[in-house]
């Protein structure tokens, strides 16, 4: 279900990425397999969260108590009937405690998936134009993440109007997780029109701090530890972007020969960072070693 919001393509092939990028710009579409906006809007937040969330949080306990009460009432009625006809063979026995813990567990898992889906839908569909397609275009300096915070604020306000308070942190955590997924996608699979230079790393770090503080919201949002753990995924990538091209090439060669990266990443990540460089050294290396043509950016 979540996968329908993601586009496919070989991120290491700049030529193919260029074709995909042109297709998006001309057709304003992720691809031929995408569902229409109307079809996706059927999966509304109200239907996904309000119904199941309300039932799981407020109604399940009521149902559990109701079953228990009705069971006791029925036993009392049966006991009175027996006494009326003179049958005193058995006294009243307290019923076992009714438990719907299995149902709670399944509904809790379902709500977790809905929260994940909701965050992904918001970032990769509702905010796809400003975030996935256009963030850091034509450069990091000209298109900062902080410019999207107003859109994030509107989204969170809408969510808070829909969801129950006990589910707030879970749904907001799903949105933060999807935001980091989107940022990583932009940095590593951004296509030929995105170029990241070592000098951009400081700006990217600043953007990550803006995102982090937005979700912490001065102590009114998510716990700081939760936010720190989630944004930590993007930090190694930003660190790689801060490195000179020669350093990245040397590390990639070491990993390709069976060694370990000095920066704790795999060869695909190093290669993706190099694919977003525009200098002649990176272009020559990629063309010679991997037959990847020069970026069209």
From TrEMBL:
Signal sequence residues: none
Organism: Vanilla planifolia
InterPro entries from the UniProt entry: Munc13_dom-2 (IPR014772), PATROL1_C (IPR057984), unc-13_homologue (IPR008528)
Record-annotated MHD2 domain positions: 142-252
Biological classification of the source: Eukaryota, Viridiplantae, Streptophyta, Embryophyta, Tracheophyta
Protein name: MHD2 domain-containing protein
């Amino acid at each position: 279900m979540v996968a329908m919001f993601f586009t496919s393509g070989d991120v290491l092939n700049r030529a193919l990425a260029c074709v995909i990028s042109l297709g998006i710009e001309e057709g304003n579409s992720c691809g031929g397999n995408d569902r229409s906006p109307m079809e996706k809007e059927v999966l509304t937040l109200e239907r996904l969260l309000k119904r199941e969330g309300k039932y799981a949080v407020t109604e399940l306990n009521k149902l559990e108590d109701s079953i228990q009460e009705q069971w006791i009432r029925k036993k009392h009625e049966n006991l009175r009937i027996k006494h009326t006809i003179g049958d005193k063979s058995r006294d009243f026995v307290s019923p076992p405690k009714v438990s719907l813990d299995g149902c709670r567990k399944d509904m809790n898992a379902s709500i977790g998936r809905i929260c994940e889906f909701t965050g992904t839908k918001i970032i990769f569909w509702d905010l796809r134009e400003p975030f996935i397609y256009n963030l850091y275009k034509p450069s990091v300096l000209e298109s900062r993440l902080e410019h999207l915070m107003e859109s994030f604020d509107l989204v969170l306000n809408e969510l808070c109007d829909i969801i129950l308070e006990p589910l707030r942190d879970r749904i907001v955590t799903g949105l933060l997780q999807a935001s980091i997924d989107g940022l990583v996608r932009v940095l590593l699979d951004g296509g030929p029109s995105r170029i990241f230079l070592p000098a951009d790393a400081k700006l990217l770090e600043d953007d990550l701090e803006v995102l982090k503080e937005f979700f912490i919201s001065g102590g009114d949002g998510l716990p700081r530890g939760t936010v720190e753990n989630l944004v930590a995924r993007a930090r190694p990538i930003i660190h790689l972007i801060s490195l000179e091209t020669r350093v990245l090439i040397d590390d990639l060669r070491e990993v390709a020969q069976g060694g370990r990266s000095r920066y704790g990443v795999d060869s695909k990540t190093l290669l993706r960072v190099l694919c977003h460089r525009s200098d002649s050294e990176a272009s020559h290396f990629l063309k010679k070693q991997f037959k990847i043509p020069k970026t069209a950016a």
